[in-house]
Amino acid sequence: MTRALAVLVLVLVVAACGRVDFDPRGDGGFSPPPPGDGSQSIGMGSGTISAPIAACLGPPTFSTLAAAYSTGHVTQPGDLDIFLIDHAIACDAGGVGLMAWDEQSTEVPDGTQVLGFKLGSVTPGTYNISIDDPPAAGEAIAIYWALQRPVGGGESSCISAPSGGTITVTVQGDGTVSGSFDVNMQGTTAWSAVGTFDAVYCGIGWYPAEND
Question: Full-prediction pTM beyond 0.90?
């Protein structure tokens, strides 16, 4: 190899590694920064949801997404964890950056609703919703819970488990996960949820303890 050609190859490699969407694993997936690198000023994400829920928390509808995150602290190595919240809970040490935030954070109002997804890999694409936890590669699980704090202290949740559906994701180099979902759930009765999301990467974020 001539010296000029070697210099050209080096320049191309450096340029590729410097891109925000550079994929060192080569599989199109997302290699996020390590936990602890998340910013407290990243925003809270966004999305839409339509879910006429028939669950155990009275007659609520899950019709607003006020926060959407992918997490730095994943429940299984190689997984991609996403959760969507109907209240504006920040990516900070008192919000979703607090381990067991759904049980311990004072920033989480009673009755907060969460729809969470665990994907069996970080590769963009469409995942079938499974009932297996942890999910296999190419599959995902979904879980819904409404946080309840009984009088006198403690914490409990109204939970619905998945019975089918899909989630489709694309993953950006900055960790933002965009996608859509159409899931079937089973609580006290069967119900479904459809929507879209742009989940920002919260490096200090934890998947809720109730369903980790």
Answer: no
